[in-house]
Amino acid sequence: MAGRRCAPRWREHPINQLPDLAQAQSLALAIVDTLPEPFLVLDETLSLLAGSRCFYEVFEEDPLEAHGRSLFELSNGQWDIPGLRQLLSAVASDHTAVESFEFEQDFRSIGSRTIQLNAMPIRDESGAGRMVLLAIKDITDRRAAEQEKQRLLEHTEELLEQQRTLLREMRHRIANSLQIIASILLLKAGSVSSEETKNELRAAHQRVMSVAAVQSHLQASQGIERIEMGPYLTKLSAGLASSMVDPPKHIAITVTAGAGALASSDAVSIGLIVTELIINAIKYAFLEKQSAAAIDVKFEMARSDWNLTVSDNGTGKRPSAEPATSSGLGTVLVAALAKQLKAQITEKSSANGLEIVIARATFRSTAVPAA
After folding, report:
1. Of 200, 202, 324, 309, nearest in space to 255 by CA
2. pLDDT category of residue 288 using cuts at 50, 70 and 90
3. How confident is the model at residue 152 (pLDDT cuts 50, 70, 90)?
4. Which architecture characterizes domain 225-371 according to CATH?
5. pLDDT over threshold 90, residue 125
6. Which one of 25, 29, 127, 180 has the fewest CB atoms closer than 10 angstroms to its CB?
7. What are the start-end ranges of the E strands in 148-236?
8. What is the reported pTM?
9. What is the distance between the terminal CA atoms of the chain, rounded to a whole angstrom?
10. What one-character DSSP code corresponds to residue 1?
11. Taking the alpha carbons of 321, 323, 325, 331 in that order, is the dihedral positive or negative?
12. Could you tell me which CATH class the domain 21-138 is placed in?
C-alpha cells in the first residue's frame, strides 16, 4: 500500500441535473469509489456505507460483503484499535474531527504497517443522517525512513565524539612533545661552544615554542572553524616574547588588530608567518642593545581581504655584503605561506627599521589618515 495509488474505476453519472438527494448521494459515492487512496464513508453507527476501490483492493475486502458491516469487524477485526472506536464515535455524534491518528497493526493482506487516519463528520440536507469520512494513509515507509535517519544521526554523533576524543588525546601528546623538544634544544644551546650553533639552536627553540603557542590557542578554540585574529595574534606574540632566550635584549612586542576572524587554516598560516618575522627581527634587527627595542604587529581586515604588517625599530636590512635575512629558512617559509594564502609581500627598510607587509588581494586600510 505504501506509495501505491490504485487505478480509478470510472462510471458514467449524470451531473447536469441533480433532481433529488438520492441522485446527489449516488454521485458522491461514485466519487469516493474513484479515489486513488483508501477512503471510507461510515454511517453514524460506524458501519460501512461506501469505500474507494483502492481500500477494497489493498485490504482484500469484498465490496458486497463489507457493505453495512461495522468498521471494527472488517479485516477480521484488525481495525478494532484501542481508542479508535471512541474517537470515531465522537466524530459521528459531536461533530469533532480526528487528525493524524497513528497506529501500527499487522494486517493479513499487507503485513505490519503504520497507518495514519483522518476523519471528519458530515450531515445530509435534513440534518438527521450523520456520516463519517475516513481517509487512510500508509506511512510505514516514511516512518522507517525517519527512524533510519535518526539512527544514522546517532551513529554519526558517536563517530564525531570518538574523533573529538582522539583529537584531544593527540593535542595533549603534541603539547607534551613540543615541551620536551623545546627543553632539549634549550639545554643543548647552553652546552655548545660554537656561537653560530648556539644561535641556531635558540632559533629552533623559539620556533618550537611558537608552534606550541599556536597549538595551545587552537586547543582553546576547539570546535571553532573561524578564529578571531586579534586575541590569537596577541597570545601568539606574548608566547614568543616569554620564550626569548636572550632577555638582556629587552625587546617589546606589541599587537594591534581590529575585529575580524579567519578560517582556522588561514589563521594558522598567518600565525606561522608572524612567528618567523618576529624571530628574524629578534635575530637581525637588534645586533646591539638599545633601550627601546620594539617589534610591532598590525593586522587589519576588510571583508575577505586582510593586511599584516610586522615592523621593528632596529637597524634595517643589512647590506648585501653581510648575511641576508632573505636567504634564511624563515623567509623562505614566509614566502611559501604567503603564496599559499594568495598574498603579496612587500618590504621597506630604512635606518629606522624594517617593515614587512603581507596583503591579501586588494586590501585597503580603513584607518583615517592623519591630518
Report:
1. 309
2. confident
3. very high
4. 2-Layer Sandwich (3.30)
5. no
6. 127
7. 226-228
8. 0.49
9. 80
10. -
11. positive
12. alpha beta
